[in-house]
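tool_log.txt
---
The assistant was asked to compare two proteins side by side. It first ran the structure predictor on the initial sequence, then on the second. Raw inputs and outputs are pasted verbatim so the downstream comparison step can read them without reformatting.
(1)
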Amino acid sequence: MLVEDDLKDVYLVKEVFQSAGHCRLEVVNDGQEAIEYLTGHGPFANRQMHPLPHVVLLDLKMPRINGLEFLHWLRHESPNSLHLLPVVVMSSSNDPKEVEQAYELGVNSYLLKPIQWQEFKERLRALNIFWSDHVEKPVIS
């Protein structure tokens, strides 16, 4: 699941994932919508149409509930085993305080969004392969 409010970044991530061909990518626009998706509220109630993700790709700077607030909710307030979901932050900020805060809140990795499209594409491809093919993920209920 991609939690991202920048439509350009959403388009780029979708393009990479579609070219990989073996991953489904759900997209929500901010932390509030991510919470609704994960808890199955509102338009996300149908788990056949909106299955729980294996990994969350998370932007930090978003309206309503930002990435750090979402991480806090996920790790400390979410129901059932949602707190086990792997989370990868993808941010354009390399502010040491934000990086530290993200790790303190339980992020699994923190990636910088490169400015150049080709480099961003290569990082996303590697991320997709790593989380799809090489990592055992917890069963989330």
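(2)
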Amino acid sequence: MASYVDIHPHVISDDENRYPPAPLFGKRSDWSQERPSTVATLIEQMDAAGVDKAAVVHSSTTYGFDNNYVVDACNAYPDRLIAVGSVDMLATDAAETIRMWVDRGLAGLRVFTGGSTKDFDPSELDDPRAYPGWELLGDLGLTMCIQTGPVGLPAVTSLAKRFPNVPIILDHLGRPDVTDGPPYAAAQSLFDLAPVESIYLKLTPRIMGDSTKGAATPETLFPKLVETFGAKRLAWGSNYPTSPGTLAEIKATAESRLAMVSPEDREWIFAKTAQTLYPRLSD
């Protein structure tokens, strides 16, 4: 088994003629211009950090629904990488488009409802127009990542209950407010998701940073997450290069923040959960 699997790095091409930017919502993210990383650079960073494999997440704030670069990039390193792309789930041809990208090599999908370039709008999540695409995900055995904030958690819950055979990964844990510290009452809407077993949580630099803000501490937050959800529903993602620092530095911070978690649980968080969600990342 690989010891480290990253389920949230990004790649940006240095060839804008071949892969022209066309950001979702019309505004390109600052990080994709200030800290772009080609797939070759990502592989170098993974080697230096001791990261064995990765599920590379398409940059919606660079390429919109054009998954060409993330698919081509990951296909160039099939023993190390898989591609997680994005399609317009509300489009009438969403299911056909998903099949097309899967035939090209796509191994998972992501819905981006907002973030650094736009406030969250969860209205597209639990929209009946998206249901055919979700049904296909279940048929194909594909995982869906969702980027949203606490405002979107009710819609995520509805989707998870309607399509229980589609694993859902919440990017950045759904961005909970944990600064109030234990018992983390401000993040109760996140912890309320625990009974919905198809929902998984992605531990990224955002929560690593938030775990040291206000009254939060890693020693109280991460054991609570493990106790509530179980390590088998938690997976590490670097968010490289969106988050500053080398991949090795980002990984070292995550290891430090999770130092109090048992070795078995850390094994799940840093590799085995990812390999459950994306079987192609297994050895």
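---
observation on (2): The radius of gyration is 17 Å. The longest helix spans residues 263-277.
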